[in-house]
Amino acid sequence: MPETDAFRYGYSVPTVAIDVAYVAGLARLRLSPEEIETFGNQLEQVLAYVKKLEEVDVQDVVLVGEEKGFQNRLRPDRALPELSTNEALENAPQRGSGLFLVPRILE
Hints:
Blueprint lengths: L4 H5 L10 H7 L6 H21 L31 H5 L5 E2 L2 E2 L7
Antiparallel strand pairs: 1-2
C-alpha cells in the first residue's frame, strides 16, 4: 500500500468512498485508469485535510456578517436588456424550435 500524506502525518483518511469513474461519467469526462487512480488519491488527500480541519477550535470565531457594526451593502436591482432567443441559444450544444434540447433523465 503506498504511503499517503494522511498516513505519513498521522491523521486518518475518511471512510467516504467516492467512485471517481462514476463521477467522471456524470460530468461526461473520459479518464484513463491512471487518471482515475491519481484523482482518487488526490481526492482522498483533500478529504483527509478537511477531516483534519474539523479538529480546529472555532468556538470564539466571529462569522463574516455577524461582527459588530456590520452593515450589508447591496447594489440596487436594475433591469437589464434581455437576450433574444437566438442570443440565448447561441452556445447551446443542441437546440430545436427555439428551445434548449437536453438528454432525457426520466423514463
